């Protein structure tokens, strides 16, 4: 086979007959290529490809055919053989060096940088217009996938080459973000940032939290949490999905207490911050803005446009994780000196902050915050593990309310399908479970989509809360202290007539607002309460 000349033109395999020459314009073993090699490994092997990254040539030093580095690159190419056609050629190390020099990446800037910024903004605007909660840029192997999370489901909406994805990732992190970790995007590190305020505004957002981490094969995963503007009206708890006849009265009663700690738990993305915001806005409205509320947020997510609430960012120097961790207890101490009626730390995650929060409650403050637990009673277990003393933790005058929530897909009422019509498409084992635990005459399934829902998620129109709300009592706390979390949960359900998160989800099912299959995926298996509490 003839050597490739200065223009990197190869005639392709001789056995295929006459073909148009392939013009190689990219080096896939240099940054940001999918088969990146460190500089000390590049002397003996190089992979060049056309602009689309489909046709490639593996150029190997004739003296290093069996070298482990060469074999590794060869194996990677073979692994992607369905997507990349390649041939092998042997050359001198001097020619391999020239290939890298000829296609060394130049610094991004000027017009190219601006174009990439606009491309990223276009994706953000599109995701926001579709109601996405997250935008994900994932570079793995030869491809970059742009994925949106809508109503808890994540799908790929755009596919690019890996090199283009890395250029977009750098444009986003290095030129469109503030408060970044490090001096620039590092593919080998976990980093955090926030979208610049002016960029967020241009995309129709109030802000965006950004997190990065390395992905396999010199790739990267970037997740943007999209924060849209506030609704102008105060959001009622019933609108979120809380039960008007049982859960909302408990929460309203707790919000009117003079002091105590109320905690909202759930997994990441379960809507905890939205519920917290709704609670704050309801408190301010009901008190005619006469309640003094101070929030501590990292970062400030949603603007609360009401007198009486001061939103403050967590303040710390640099990007040192220890500095950030120490900032929470310092911020809580400072907040107590500010003398607000209600303190809202965005999250309590360390022992010192937990103990300061209880000290604030003892001294007459109300604390509203969030934690990560799988159900409401486990909040107490979480704070016990953080070292809060039992005489405070199990005092129902201090630990006043425990809330746990998930988000459940809400059916589009214009195209939902009655169970009797759509059940034939459900696997028999799943159908048996649904028919055992549901009144199927009241059940609807996700529809095919219509003009009201097709642009986002066919058959789904938003999400609703499925939650459990415990107003603590002396009896509940004593059972928990003496017999443990499971016994306390059983006592709450059977003696206090508590509504579990699954029972709440089933309420939505029998109201025709949720598909039981979604309950199984978004909340819990339908037999959970029978197994855990005998209900």
TrEMBL record:
Keywords: ATP-binding, Nucleotide-binding, Plasmid. PANTHER family: PROTEIN TRANSPORT PROTEIN HOFB HOMOLOG, TYPE II SECRETION SYSTEM PROTEIN GSPE-RELATED. Residues 113-485 form the Bacterial type II secretion system protein E domain. InterPro entries: P-loop_NTPase (IPR027417), T2SS/T4SS_dom (IPR001482). Coiled coil: none annotated. One of its GO terms (cellular component) is plasma membrane. This is Pilus assembly protein PilQ. Gene3D superfamilies: 3.30.450.90, P-loop containing nucleotide triphosphate hydrolases. Belongs to the GSP E family. It comes from the Bacteria. It comes from Xanthomonas citri pv. vignicola. One of its GO terms (molecular function) is ATP binding.
